[in-house]
Amino acid sequence: MIQMKNVMKKYTNGVIAIKDLSLTVDPGEFLYVIGPSGAGKSTLIKMLYHELVPTSGTIQVGKYDFSTMSDKDVPYFRRGIGIVFQDFKLLPRLTVYENIAYAMEVIEARDEDIKPRVLHVLKLVGLEQKVRRFPSELSGGEQQRVSIARAIVNAPDVVIADEPTGNLDPDTSDGIMDILERINADGTTIIMATHNRELVNARPHRLLEIAGGRLVRDEQGGSYSDED
User: Could you tell me which residues come within 8 angstroms of residue 190 by beta carbon, excluding any fewer than 6 positions away?
Assistant: First the structure.
């Protein structure tokens, strides 16, 4: 599903955020990406959905090789990627239904396909009764559920979640994790950057630890150690 070889990312200010990182992710895996602030987690995540490009090395996600992918291919590549952000990034003037439907409209889905698919993912995240609400009328946890529904409405192969529980209380975070694990159980690859020690230790999955821009740990069922 994902292959990174000897990836390095150097910013224009001279900071090297990622150093010689190689990684393989199989279809259907669930990965945590952990590490202290400034370790390179966000840079890694952004490179995976081509928000940033590596300075050197190669990245391949599915059939797309970033070193040969043209600008016109990027929107097609992103159709197979769902992205969940810490701050939700919902469109405030659109209803819950419209926020999710918009993700299908931009890829020119057929009108007759949009409504049943949107209602299906809303049921999956437990918000089928909130279709006409606006983001401002929802709790933080509900807004994140809408964000997840929007990320999966086009049935992506990979969902990348960047601190999806960062602004949520523990009970709400558990609910978000329930949804992500359910999506993963259906075959979607999940890559989740997080600082949430309790969730990682309570729900073990493959764990990648980044420190100083390097991959320092890759462990199945890994957990936060006392030193982390």
Answer: 29, 30, 31, 158, 159, 161, 180, 181, 183, 184
Q: Give the length of the chain.
A: 228
CA distance 127 to 130: 5
In this structure, the number of other CB atoms found within 10 A of the CB of residue 65 comes to 13
User: Which residue stretches of the chain are H helix?
Assistant: 41-48, 74-78, 96-105, 111-124, 140-152, 170-185, 197-202
Cα angle 151, 152, 157 (rounded to 5 degrees) comes to: 105
Burial annotation 112-137 (CB, 10 A radius, 16+ → b, else e): eebeebbeebbebbebeebeebbbee
pTM (2 d.p.) = 0.89
Structure tokens at 92: 């405030």
113-160 pLDDT, tens digit per residue, is 999 999 999 998 999 999 999 999 999 999 999 999 999 999 899 999
